[in-house]
Amino acid sequence: MEDQLYTTTTQCKTWSFGPTTLSNLRSSTNAAGVRSIKRGWKRARVEASSTTNTPLATTPIPSNNNTPTPIPADPSTIPDPETLSPSEELTLVNYYMLRLMAMSDIFSFPSSVKATACVFLSRFHLHHSVHSYHPKHLLTTILFLATKTENNYLSTAEFCKRIPKLTPEAVLKYEFKVAGGIGWDFEIRHPLRGADGGIMELLTALGSNSTDPGLQTLREKLGPNPSRRVTDAAGRMKGYLTKEALVSDVYYHYTPPQIFLGALWLADKELAEAYIEWRFSENSTMGRPLKKKKKEKKGKEKATEEETTAEASKPPALAPKLVPAVIACGEMMLKAQEYEKIPVDVLKRIDKKLHRCQNPQKFLGAGSPIGIGNEAPPQPKKQAEEAAPPEKKRKTEDEMFGGALK
Amino acid sequence: MSATTGPPTSGTLSNATVIRRTLPFGNGNGSNTPLSAMVAESGDIKLANDDSDASDNDDPDDLNTRTKKKYTKDRKLGEGAYAVVNLGHRRATATEPAVPVAIKKIKVNTEFRDGITMDAIREVKYLRELHHINIIALLDVFSSKNQNLCLVLEFLDSDLEMIIRDTSQTLSMGDIKSWMLMSLRGLWWCHKSFVIHRDIKPNNLLLAANGVLKLADFGLARSFADPKRHMTHQVITRWYRPPELFYGAKFYSSSVDIFSLGLVFCELMLRVPFLAGNTDLHQLELICQWLGTPTEENWPGVSTLPGYHEASGTVVKERGTDFFMNTFIAAGESGVDLLMKMLRLDPRKRCSAREALDSKWFSQEPYPTPPASLPKKGGGKGIEKVGSDLKRKAGELFNTPDERGKKVARKLDFGGGG
Questions:
Q1: DSSP code string of A21-71
Q2: B116 with A175: Cβ contact below 8 A
Q3: Chain A residue numbers touching B124 (CB-CB < 8 A)
Q4: CB contact under 8 A, A380 and B254
Q5: 318-337 in A: which are within 8 Å (CB) of B?
Q6: What is the mean pLDDT of each run of 10 residues along chain A (406 residues)?
Q7: Looking at the partner chain, which of B3, B58, B225 has a beta carbon nearest the beta carbon of A257?
Q8: Where along this sequence does the record place binding of ATP (chain B) (predicted)?
């Protein structure tokens, strides 16, 4: 019943999870991020008490230094910052994913580039907490990497032209981190191709003179202008596939054809169900043997995994089992719309919390920032690498994609 | 993931991967920064981030280091403009003995200023997905301290080109059949996975010590394009390039690989490249002369290809059975039949890898030689040669321009989606 080929892909082997596993994974990544914040603050406290001059009566850390301090508050009385919960992390990642989509639209990249970039971001943060890797520092890197893996390469010079103040150095700085962070799995199986194939198949069948009874039923269900109905639904479906499908977790839980059908179901429930019935029901009559042959020949250009799934499914009817899965998948996508509605002040609050976590030096007067993109100026090694100093780079990104959440 | 059951439960597939996978993580440290740069910052130099996150499991640098430490570097096998290949070993563990590996270090390209090169991206992308006994295995990826990408590949000690060139050995038809069979199986898996290799030639067909043949060098590979998206025609080493690419076809399919492999088949029998053109134009002339001149009759639509021009010489009819039987008699009737199907001028008429595998030729005597009994050319020289195969830029015949004069056009037209 399964598409054998799909089971050999890294997407299936390493990047598919059940809901529980996925949420455990996010929790453990979150815990690791929290630990690194705690360590950073601990270090900062030690520095605050030893290297800077702190008044010490109340400090638990032993010190015999009694000179007055420029820092108004006693660092030791400042509590550890509140860290982000796994769901707050996810909210932040998804917010930046929406920004990533907008960035891709600036370039009018094909949906495959956009979708791949989003999956890269999501997968990266599955294993790397935003506590250590603020997504705002990774967006351009991820998008640029996706242009390369999706065969849509343009030079960094060209890439940077479209985004004010962006430098090639900034784009490439974390490329290895990102590539390694997603386990070098560059191939992403999107539902987009299967979806195109499915729509093509529907339109071809509806446009044919075939008197196939299954097809007749399908036509009847679709009303006076079946082709028009399919085209309209296809437009809405594409919308779901390039947004909700990416923001939600469906890529981790469902196969590409299921996601395609889920999106079609969201676009037009009746159509999706009729299509599934026509294609996968017990007495599905869509002239399979004939069609299949034809497809194998010309189908080389069309990577519809959906086809293979269908081929393997002849004897038992798939439809009764498929429909619930498709509906569940569609509903999961729909939930992702919540992320677009999250009020700005909620996002701001999360970002502020994260800012505090990552910058103990600002609150303790000692220590150094935590996480990438926050490299402290006193770390000359990293700074020297860049043409643009981190200060400047950060500012650039703040303006464009990071920083203040509006 | 079944098509029917919805979210998979946290079962077999996922469990192993949940717990911090030991992935080859990228490394982002700038440890190659010159000291002077540090001094320039003056005053404030600290012991850089000493204890920072050292204990953190998910620190990418740390994971990268762990991956790197799994391997030793033994000695250099070869160095080219594109990569350095070292013979190495995966260190023995409690359960597994040491295994020899080839470590292909992709050099930071001075011409390419855009991070990881496209060749490396393609190679990693496809080899991470393609697992087949007749396709070289990518074992790990890590980055060296100078931000070079290192691919750890299965170690293979010779290639088909060495076998072909070593005229002291006679190759039986069973041997040739065996190599063709293994190549076709690898190719079938690529095509089934929607990947076109785009650089099939004898020195990309590597041979393991046990005789098993494996497709290597996926630096030019790509997945099937979406309908209507252009593909570059500047691929495949000239001698093995099919006519549609010389005519600048923007849409082509896996049949380009079949044509290339067909020419490898000829070369296995002739022991010299069948069509060895000096220039692209010359190559096309050779194709016309030996296989036939593409015309609207034998290849409907050929004249609409952007680079099509009528052949200057006399029009040669597409070669039929007689010609092939005369030239490649050794293959026998069914072998010749297969060869002709692979070398059809019209790409739509060429057989697929699957159809080729179904050829009667493979099930007739002489049967394919078992891999372990195939002629070998291992040993020292083999190792060096494979080292040089791996480091060569994809699409090139030779490592240095003067090795044999002309290089193959190689600039990829990335713009239209190569």
A1: HHHHHHHHHHHHHHHHHHHHHHHHHHHHHHTS----TT-SS--------S-
A2: yes
A3: 184, 186
A4: no
A5: 318, 321-322, 324-325, 328-329
A6: 78 93 95 93 86 48 49 72 95 96 96 97 96 94 96 93 92 92 95 94 90 87 92 96 96 96 96 91 56 40 45 62 94 94 94 93 86 57 37 41 45
A7: B3
A8: 77-85, 104-105
